Amino acid sequence: AEASQGHITVVLLGATGDLAKKYLWQGLFQLYMDQVSSGHSFTFHGAALTALEPGQRLMFDVLKKLTCPPDESPDRCAVLKDQFLKLSQYHQLKTAENYTVLNREIETLLRQEGLKEAGRIFYFSVPPFAYTEIARHINSSCRPPPGAWLRVVLEKPFGHDLESAQQLAAELTGFFREEEMYRVDHYLGKQAVAHILPFRDQNRQFLDPIWNRHHVERVEIVLKETVDAKGRTSFYEQYGVIRDVLQNHLTEALMFLTMELPANVSRAEEVLQCKLQAFQSLRGLEKNSAVLGQYQAYASQVQEELQKAQDYISTTPTFAGVLIHNDNLRWEGVPFLLTSGKALDERVGYVRVLFKNRAYCTQSETLRDAGHSQCKAKQIIFYIGHGILNTPAVLVSRNLFRPVMPEGSWREAVGQSDLHIFGQPLSDYYVYSPVKERDAYSVLISNIYHGRKDFFITTENLLASWGFWTPLLDSISHQPLRLYPGGVENQHLLDFEMVSGEVAFTLGEPVEQRLMPDDYRTVQSKFRQSPLVSAWSEDLISQLASDIEKAASRTVARSGQFHLALSGGSSPVVLFQRLTRHHYAFPWKHTHIWLVDERCVPLTDTESNFFSLHNHLLQSVRVPYFNVHPMPVHLHQRLCVEEDRGTELYAKEIMALVANASFDLVLLGVGTDGHTASLFPRSENGLEGAQTVVLTESPVKPHQRMSLSLPLINRARQVFVLVLGKGKHDITTLLSRVGHEPRKWPISGVSPSSGQLVWYVDYEALLG
């Protein structure tokens, strides 16, 4: 006791569950073997809802099967195992009183042994719905004494989407501080994944010139499984492959590859900040960013295990391929492919960075060795495990560079193997594998003990990831799934390709495959006596983008230029993204961009309509600088002051450049109160009169706005009104019934005097 650096209490909740049996007890035993001579003493408390005697029996059945690494002597192994069993005990933790009793027992034990508690680890190997109640009990009656640390370990899933993750995070932060929480993504304990950042750091001299869009052709992050979801369908039906694997494991690997390197890769806070910046530069995902599949036996497994009816159709994907783009200067244009699935042809995980090859070799390849042949593929592979190598490894093409690897933990594989990986013999690579292969959970439990937060998911990191994936998950909830038989029989069914920033299966849908009901047809009719285009939102945006391009091309052919006035708000963002990625023939060079309205904030403010327009459209297309016309809301270092005459300036600019002050096309939206542009119900300005540009007041912040007036909008050749989402259903229904009452509903006053008005309304807004 005198020599002890303090006592560490480990409490494993869910001690008799699957995860505990397979990995956690073995990981805790490994921690004890590694640290038995460190000066800390330990006790291990297994806990579950099961009553004392059966729980004890179940737990000790697992403990008796614990094993030592091959390099441990049998005698020492037997002694350590015996000690570990003596230091382990079982508790039933069901009520608040149970936690109080556990705390009292820990304190009594420490007092009897004369030990001071250094820290306490609670490992939550339980379903997330139980987290809050357990957290409340620990916080109220089971915290360690002052001066000792608390580490609470949480297993995924951490929510189902952004909203549920935010809710769970808010509940937990009511009981624990951020530094006390260790969210586990066991992929961060995989040796090849954990080495991505150190590898980049130690090989900066080689990677700095080539780790960018000029040299990297593509990146693949892949986790394939041969097993199916049998026995786990209740979990899988809720989550599916994207939530189970891509949103966490594969995204973390993506971050390690794409983030800027911090000065110190061992400082958790620096790593987190770089990761969050990397999340911000990811381009938003759309429905066509993913291909989805489901193995054929899945539906019947769900029907059997969850007692579903025979006609039950599951829309849960068991396979996904997702194309991700990063819009920062380093990675712009490089495709990142994330792929995972069950019932595939092999079990393997890898991260593959394939470099562009600019060489042409005149001499025959047979006359060269791999190290000097610039025509062979150049790649770096972080091989996570299983597959043909059956071990974690780092492989670097010999025609790239000989990497720097830490000698104590990685060693070069010697001996030429006849194995081939990605079409090349192993001899074409420098191959390194761990000196000592370690299970991911052993690595992570060791990191929890050492307080290494950089191996765990912080709340900010978690919410950034869910923020990125949730829009895709929402958009694909009704997307058709490609059925596949499973295993080697899949043949080419799941092959997919990248086309114009999207992905699609290479083979057409086989005739015998089940298709989802086809309710994506576009219907045309009338709305408020004007043409109506209606469809599901993505198809509607596609149609609208095409119609704008046609209008632009026709106008440029007729008059040499196209004057387009665009509204702010969230609805046009998806349109802007569609225009940048699919409409390469758009005559941007001859297009003038005007704003329909602007908030009275600096143009660099995220609330600014121009800021959104710049981020989602202008920086991706080639509109001449002088053809961009932001509203002058910020003059003389102040915002929207009448004496500065910003409205007059804009009106004069329009009169000078736009023939008859008649825009070729004005794009409008509709607010839930019937406002359009920044013309609000009962506005003092802009609904009538001679003024063309006005200052108005919004009922919501920021209150001050600048807007084109209704008379100016009505001089346009064409006006398109875009209405999206269920939230607009009530106002859409109301507008279908009311007449021309702009003071009540400004949008009802939109009626081009000699132009055309077209409504683009999605099914959710139209039908609810």
From TrEMBL:
<comment type="similarity">
    <text>In the C-terminal section; belongs to the glucosamine/galactosamine-6-phosphate isomerase family. 6-phosphogluconolactonase subfamily.</text>
</comment>
<dbReference type="InterPro" id="IPR022674">
    <property type="entry name" value="G6P_DH_NAD-bd"/>
</dbReference>
<dbReference type="GO" id="GO:0005783">
    <property type="term" value="C:endoplasmic reticulum"/>
</dbReference>
<comment type="pathway">
    <text>Carbohydrate degradation; pentose phosphate pathway; D-ribulose 5-phosphate from D-glucose 6-phosphate (oxidative stage): step 2/3.</text>
</comment>
<dbReference type="InterPro" id="IPR022675">
    <property type="entry name" value="G6P_DH_C"/>
</dbReference>
<comment type="similarity">
    <text>In the N-terminal section; belongs to the glucose-6-phosphate dehydrogenase family.</text>
</comment>
<dbReference type="InterPro" id="IPR037171">
    <property type="entry name" value="NagB/RpiA_transferase-like"/>
</dbReference>
<dbReference type="Pfam" id="PF00479">
    <property type="entry name" value="G6PD_N"/>
</dbReference>
<dbReference type="InterPro" id="IPR036291">
    <property type="entry name" value="NAD(P)-bd_dom_sf"/>
</dbReference>
<dbReference type="Pfam" id="PF02781">
    <property type="entry name" value="G6PD_C"/>
</dbReference>
<keyword id="KW-0313">Glucose metabolism</keyword>
<dbReference type="InterPro" id="IPR006148">
    <property type="entry name" value="Glc/Gal-6P_isomerase"/>
</dbReference>
<feature type="domain" description="Glucosamine/galactosamine-6-phosphate isomerase">
    <location>
        <begin position="537"/>
        <end position="759"/>
    </location>
</feature>
<keyword id="KW-0521">NADP</keyword>
<dbReference type="GO" id="GO:0004345">
    <property type="term" value="F:glucose-6-phosphate dehydrogenase activity"/>
</dbReference>
<dbReference type="GO" id="GO:0047936">
    <property type="term" value="F:glucose 1-dehydrogenase [NAD(P)+] activity"/>
</dbReference>
<dbReference type="GO" id="GO:0017057">
    <property type="term" value="F:6-phosphogluconolactonase activity"/>
</dbReference>
<dbReference type="GO" id="GO:0006006">
    <property type="term" value="P:glucose metabolic process"/>
</dbReference>
<dbReference type="GO" id="GO:0009051">
    <property type="term" value="P:pentose-phosphate shunt, oxidative branch"/>
</dbReference>
<protein>
    <recommendedName>
        <fullName>GDH/6PGL endoplasmic bifunctional protein</fullName>
        <ecNumber>1.1.1.363</ecNumber>
        <ecNumber>1.1.1.47</ecNumber>
        <ecNumber>3.1.1.31</ecNumber>
    </recommendedName>
</protein>
<dbReference type="InterPro" id="IPR019796">
    <property type="entry name" value="G6P_DH_AS"/>
</dbReference>
<dbReference type="InterPro" id="IPR005900">
    <property type="entry name" value="6-phosphogluconolactonase_DevB"/>
</dbReference>
<keyword id="KW-0560">Oxidoreductase</keyword>
<feature type="domain" description="Glucose-6-phosphate dehydrogenase NAD-binding">
    <location>
        <begin position="11"/>
        <end position="193"/>
    </location>
</feature>
<keyword id="KW-0378">Hydrolase</keyword>
<keyword id="KW-0119">Carbohydrate metabolism</keyword>
<dbReference type="GO" id="GO:0050661">
    <property type="term" value="F:NADP binding"/>
</dbReference>
<feature type="domain" description="Glucose-6-phosphate dehydrogenase C-terminal">
    <location>
        <begin position="199"/>
        <end position="489"/>
    </location>
</feature>
<dbReference type="Pfam" id="PF01182">
    <property type="entry name" value="Glucosamine_iso"/>
</dbReference>
<dbReference type="InterPro" id="IPR001282">
    <property type="entry name" value="G6P_DH"/>
</dbReference>
